[in-house]
Amino acid sequence: MFQAYAFGQNKNFRDDSLQFKMYTRLYINEQLTVDSIAVKKIFCDYCSDIQTEVLTNEAIRQSKIEQYNPKYRKAGEHRLALIIRFSKEDFRKLNDSNEHREP
After folding, report:
1. Which of 31, 42, 48, 72 has its CA 20 to 30 A from that of 78?
2. Tell me: the pLDDT tens digits for 68-96?
């Protein structure tokens, strides 16, 4: 009889990452192509401007992917609720890397 055991750290994503919720709007025109994407709200009380900009870009990127979802293939306005997860270290480094840039 063979038994396998897994030893190591149990990494829990809740311990080492941050989760952000954001609302976007996807506007589809009559030709069923994207007219525009608007980020309406990002839930982050402690984010710097740089971190908010990164979250906005990620929300737009994910909304572009969602445009191919069949339930958004109708003309009109579609409201999306997106959840994005970043590791705490990477999110903290966003401020550190941009502090050293020239304005």
Report:
1. 48
2. 889 888 899 999 999 998 888 888 888 77
For tokens 């190591």, name the residue. Answer: 8
Hey, is 48 helix, strand or coil?
A: coil
Buried-state track 47-77, b at ≥16 Cβ within 10 A, e below 16: beeebeebbeebbeebbeebbeeeebeeeee
Residue numbers of the domain that contains 27: 16-98
pLDDT, the chain, mean: 82
Q: Quick one: which of 91, 14, 84, 13 has its CA closest to 43?
A: 84
- Is there a domain that residue 93 lies in? yes
Whether residue 103 lies inside any domain: the answer is no
**Residue in this structure with the two tokens 């050293």, named with its chain if needed:** 100
Give CA–CA dist 93/54, Å, rounded: 12
Distance from the Cα of residue 27 to its chain's centroid: 19
Q: Is residue 3 part of a domain?
A: no
Structure tokens at 74: 């109708």
